[in-house]
Design a protein that fits this description.
Blueprint: H1 2-7, H2 18-24, H3 35-54
C-alpha cells in the first residue's frame, strides 16, 4: 500500500475499484468478500500502521455502490 500511495501522492484524489486495489495489493479477488472485512483488515490497519511508522496519512470513501 505504501508503494501505491507514493506513486499517486501528487494527486489530490485517487479513485480505484476495490477489486482492482485487491489485485494491486496481490490479494485474491475472493478474499475479503465483504467490504467491511476489507475495510477493517486492510484499509484501517494499513492507515494506522503508515500513520504511526511513516507519518503518511490517507483516507477513503465509497464513491458509488452498485445495487443488487
Amino acid at each position: 500500500m505504501y508503494e501505491l500511495l507514493m506513486m499517486y501522492r501528487k494527486k489530490n484524489e485517487w479513485v480505484i475499484e476495490i477489486d482492482r486495489l485487491k489485485g494491486l495489493l496481490g490479494l485474491n479477488l475472493t478474499a475479503y468478500k465483504s467490504f467491511t472485512d476489507f475495510e477493517t483488515r486492510i484499509l484501517k490497519y494499513t492507515q494506522k500502521e503508515l500513520s504511526e511508522r511513516c507519518g503518511l496519512y490517507f483516507d477513503w470513501e465509497i464513491a458509488a455502490k452498485e445495487r443488487k
